[in-house]
Batch of 2 targets.
Target 1
Amino acid sequence: MSHGQSRYRWLIVAIFFGFVLLHQADKLLIGPLTTPIMEDFRINEAQMGAVSMFAILVQAVLYPVWGYLYDRYARSRLLALASLIWGSTTWLNALAPNYGTFMVTRASTGIDDSSYPGMYSLLSDYFGPQMRGKVYGLLEIAQPFGFMLGTVLAAMLGGTLGWRRVFFITGSLGLVVAFLIFFGVREPQRGQSEPELAGLERIATYRIDKQVALGLVRNRSYLLLMAQGFFGVFPWQVLTFWFFRYLEAERGYTSEQAMMTMIVAIVTLAAGYFVGGSLGDFFFRRTPRGRVLTSMAGVLAGSVFLVLALSVPVENQGLFLLPLALTGVTMSMAAPNVVATIHDITEPEVRGTAQAIQYFAENIGSAVAPLLAGLIAVRHSLHLAILVICVVTWLACALLFGVMAWLVPGDIARLRRAMQLRAAREVGGVTL
């Protein structure tokens, strides 16, 4: 790869980093603005949880649609379209005059929330297996920083401009990002970064077909990843949606104290993405089980540190920060390794679909998490809701990662054999 090509692929990472950063700020802005929205529409926690549930369900249902489109057509153009939809639906949500309309328009924002698999699929054709975890971890740093940006916008502008005008601002940013992606991101050849194909002058065009897609249901490691994903996003949905309110309502934090605490948690969460991706790459170079074992260690440690954090007395804010920060680092370690593992065991032309179905499993399972937490909070407390939902689902994920560590070497070896056969056909002048 020439120096210019290497620099360009990092430019793409930078553009996608901006997309994720601003999109997550827009998507997660509803968390720190939950209280004024509830007051505006005069609704309770259960009703507010239902708003998030329907948006997540729309997102989940459309994941397979986006995945198929990414594997069939130009991913860069579809990502630009997703950004355009992001801006438009956020504007509609800001204009909602009542609770019913707010719920419907909020659900429409889930359309573009399911567009992320195209980014990772496209980047897998610019970066090889040995460094994908690190690259994906770097990209995913934008997610918690997006939440922090949304929190800062809510704190600085929510009180003066109101939650509707803040939504107008973040929606407008989606239109700007759509322009950048449309004119700044070139579509790579699928599979060009695979080790077996990297040195070839010519690579045939491969697109998703029925046989390759059906192979996903025979891939044991992939099925376990889906099962893990079903449980794995419960904690994320609960923490991003309810933790700000938990700090204010049950630990007695002011908005400023809650924001500073969330900033600490978000910075450590962001660090965990890069640490987890880097460790996954490091151990993957030594054993094909490396990424999965890194993920298992992360969710187990996250469970322990969250229990310790929520056990700290309310008045001891300083001590609360330490286990909370460690929870942030460890809970995010699995995320880049899950994506990298999907790409370690699936063909290039089916990775958008594979990741989309994975996200479908994650969101269809966790869609009820905000509502479930809200119901538990009405009957008991947010403290109990956060603790039970997060710990139980993380322990389930650790068990599934343990089984996966036994199976994944065989599925990685299968893909490498398939890529070797494909390279041999290319060299021989035979295309499929």
Target 2
Amino acid sequence: MATKRISDEPAFVLHRYDWSESSLILEVFTRHHGRVALVAKGAKRPSSNFRPVLLPLQPLRVAFGGDAEIRTLKGAEWVGGQVMPTGEALLSGYYLNELLLRLLARDDGHPQLFDAYASAVSVLASGHGEALEPALRAFELILLREIGLLPSLDMQTLTLVALEPHARYSLVPEAGLKSWQEPDGRASLSGSQWLGLQRALDEPGPFHATLQQAAHVMAELKPQLRTLLHYHCGVTALRTRQLMMDLQAL
């Protein structure tokens, strides 16, 4: 069988592991092929062209080939145009990477999710701190929707009854979107707020529309998405989230 070669593919490095004294294994998020594992031979050598390029949160164009589970990186070029995020924004970028590593199957392309990730990283690199949290919430919603883990936000999940604009509803792992019962202590949004998020997600390029909607419901939306993500990741706290909390406690 002929070796399949992919060229000029938009990509971001999610994680890298030592493979030998001179080489790396990369987890890469590509636009058309999803998450792929690549070996970057000789990337740790001082003379390697890969060495200054294979950085997280930086837009790349890559070429790779092979038909094994771990394919071979043939070329990588930095696209440019944005600086490396710093501080809280950098940790937030690593948080996005951890979500993709935990929730995305390999070799499953999600072009719209890739575009949302690129937009989120651009926001993180911009230095506009007020946009950081809305960008994270928008990406979380699009990620969950793209991989089939977000219910429709315009109806109650179990009954398929339409939302009432002034009633309150909670997003819960076991039952999707359900009518809010105040004694259970869950966060909630109004029906009109959920409907606004659904309309934003239905936009052709949903990231910025969803970011704008999420910015108005930050306090109530964040704990609901966190609970849902932890449930599907099978953890009580993501590593990057715990690191952020530890640093804030210092």
